[in-house]
């Protein structure tokens, strides 16, 4: 009887998975999207980390999210992960956090076929949770079989947005144990290890957002003379983009089937800072204290701007929902190689 019950349970899961894989909102088959990164892509991972010091599951975060709910997103509403997957199609919101699926064990197998978000606030390349994907890959392969599982993983898309925390930690740590050049090389080598590990587990389509001009975020401006951008931080971000570009070009030549799209979030963000694009404030935080630019955490009781869409920055580090949607539109659809190359995320999704 127990064996029959197990068979019935597996059949139910298999039928559910097939329904997911054959369901579409645009006439094609929806395949999973897997997201890796830091707080710009976190949709609640840190809610499930015991004694985590970096969380966003409190007001005023989420004030413009449906129901004004603080979900763990470092945003007034949707974040970059949500906006990108919406535009790519088949998703209303980002896939669920890996740790939430683990906690709800009964829904784990079905959930992973909808994609998984592994991003975590505070994460850097050195702490990226790529190893968690091995569990997902193992479950997909076990259910579909190696051949079908491999095909699904190869069709899936893998999105990365990480590196800002690494630069911040390096920049504000004294004494420094390496030069800027050595730091960029070390960071790129770490990126290469993660990408190759995922490639070995079946990943083929990599959408990468490089590091924005973090020297222009409110937290950096606060400490700079006259509130200017910190050029040294921005130089590191630009150097990392150039290095990531060389890395991905090389991997596309040496790894069979490796496809990528690299978004230049530095150029994207600087174009907004210099040309505004409908934003009225591109230097200070919408949710923070009343100090110049806003330095405090975004917590209930601090100053909250009335018109969130006027601001580029939600808090001292993160973009507003409007800014995230604008960035996602560029990443997914732009044909400008100054912003995304060699193809955009939309083309990579279809490749």
Automatic annotation (TrEMBL):
It comes from the Eukaryota. This is Triacylglycerol lipase. Its EC number is 3.1.1.3. Residues 1-27 form the signal peptide. Belongs to the 'GDSL' lipolytic enzyme family. GO terms for biological process: lipid catabolic process. Keywords: Hydrolase, Lipid degradation, Lipid metabolism, Signal. It holds the Pfam family Lipase_GDSL. SUPFAM superfamilies: SGNH hydrolase. It comes from Helianthus annuus. One of its GO terms (molecular function) is triacylglycerol lipase activity. The keyword Electron transport does not apply.
């Amino acid at each position: 009887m127990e064996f029959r019950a197990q068979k019935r349970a597996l059949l139910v899961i298999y039928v559910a998975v097939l329904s997911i894989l054959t369901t579409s909102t645009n006439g094609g088959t929806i395949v999973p999207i897997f997201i890796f990164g830091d707080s710009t892509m976190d949709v609640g991972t840190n809610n499930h980390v015991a004694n985590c010091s970096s969380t966003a599951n409190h007001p005023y975060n989420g004030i413009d999210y449906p129901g004004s709910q603080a979900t763990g997103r470092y945003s007034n509403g949707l974040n970059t992960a949500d906006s990108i997957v919406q535009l790519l199609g088949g998703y209303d919101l980002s896939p669920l956090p890996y740790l939430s699926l683990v906690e709800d064990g009964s829904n784990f197998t079905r959930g992973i076929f909808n994609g998984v978000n592994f991003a975590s606030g505070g994460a850097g390349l050195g702490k990226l949770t790529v190893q968690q994907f091995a569990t997902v890959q193992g479950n997909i392969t076990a259910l579909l079989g190696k051949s079908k599982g491999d095909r699904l993983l190869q069709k899936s898309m893998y999105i990365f947005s990480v590196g800002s925390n690494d630069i911040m930690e390096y920049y504000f740590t004294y004494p420094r144990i390496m030069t800027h050049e050595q730091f960029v090389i070390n960071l790129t080598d770490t990126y290469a290890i993660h990408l190759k590990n995922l490639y070995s587990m079946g990943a083929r389509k990599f959408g990468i957002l490089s590091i924005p001009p973090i020297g222009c975020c409110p937290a950096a401006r606060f400490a700079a003379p006259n509130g200017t951008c910190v050029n040294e931080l921005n130089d590191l971000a630009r150097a990392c983009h150039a290095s990531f570009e060389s890395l991905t070009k090389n991997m596309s030549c040496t790894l069979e089937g490796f496809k990528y799209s690299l978004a230049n979030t530095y150029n994207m963000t600087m174009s907004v800072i210099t040309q505004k694009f409908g934003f009225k404030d591109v230097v200070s935080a919408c949710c923070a204290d009343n100090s110049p630019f806003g330095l405090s955490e975004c917590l209930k009781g601090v100053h909250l701007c009335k018109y969130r869409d006027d601001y580029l920055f939600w808090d001292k580090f993160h973009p507003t929902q409007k800014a995230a949607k604008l960035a996602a539109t560029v990443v997914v659809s732009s044909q400008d190689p100054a912003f995304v190359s060699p193809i955009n995320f939309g083309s990579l999704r279809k490749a």
